[in-house]
Amino acid sequence: MIKTIYWTDNAVVMIDQKALPHDEKYLTCRSYIEVIAAINDMTIRGAPAIGVATAMGIALGMQNLPVSSEEDLKTSFYRICDEFSRTRPTAVNLFWAIERMKRCFEEKRGAGIDIAKTALVTEAIKICEEDITANRQIGTHGRKLIKNGDNILTHCNAGALATAGYGTALGVIRAACEEGKEIHVFVDETRPVLQGARLTAWELMRDNIPATLITDNMAGFLMKQGKIDLVIVGADRIAANGDVANKIGTYSLAVLAHEHNIPFYVVAPMSTIDVDIKDGEEIPIEERNEEEVLYICGARTAPEGINACNPAFDVTPNRFIAAIITEAGIAAGPYEETIKKLFAKSN
Known about the structure:
Layout: E1 5-8, E2 11-15, E3 26-29, H1 32-40, H2 47-63, H3 70-85, H4 92-108, H5 113-142, E4 151-154, H6 169-178, E5 184-188, H7 195-206, E6 211-214, H8 219-224, E7 230-233, E8 237-239, E9 244-247, H9 250-259, E10 264-267, E11 273-274, H10 291-294, E12 295-296, E13 299-300, E14 313-316, E15 323-326, E16 329-331, H11 335-346
Parallel strand pairs: 4-5, 4-7, 5-6, 7-10, 8-11, 10-15
Antiparallel strand pairs: 1-2, 2-3, 8-9, 9-14, 12-13, 15-16
């Protein structure tokens, strides 16, 4: 199994996703500042993986701080949490992880500095392990939606690399293959950073799952030809009404799938659902550096002087989504009701 991120010897180790698919190498972070940098520059990316990295980064930061009193401990802890909260605004798992670490801290800080520090490490490792378990449960629920012989289109990377392991959207695909179903995956390259071409294709090749890489603008043509049976994508934040923020280009695929009567499935852990946000209009959309559009793999492809627009995500309205697959089960419209039922079930 791909080890996306793990804790070892008072350090956070993560696979360097910027180096893939050409080099499989790992970055060892020995300070929380290095973890923040890795989140910002997309050495690690994907909402669940960002959540795990945040939890481990907070724990790491607290291990290395020379605090002498409980008040110093509290001040340092909340400052580190604030620094992580300013990294990736759209991925709600980041904020979910921060809140969970805060609850752990408040429960343990009165027991002493060393106990509180140890508890934070234990909690971060637990979050990592729970994510892998949740992904496997997601796969078990979702594989029933895939038929033998299906051709599946996916966008960006929602595989093991986007999580602590196994994956969400690719987890469903993996589970279907493990069940013995023969499937084929069309992989959107996913401009501007090519997470599909670099990461999803790499994962599928490793698992010997039949796949074909396509450019983002080929999807509609393939749908019209009848070559796509269903679309499966991940999510970075899901609103209470089922609207979904995911990698830029997801909305276009959902509209195309709707036009061609192709089911469009979203796959994510319950931690990606933000019940405090009513609908997609309230989801903050991260705007990244325009150089990601002006360059491809370090080579400039646009003329000097041209400006570029680079929103990292878009929002797909719930009316285009056939189902949302989680570890607690599958939600379908009306999403306000079925999402509430999933939370009641998971609690």
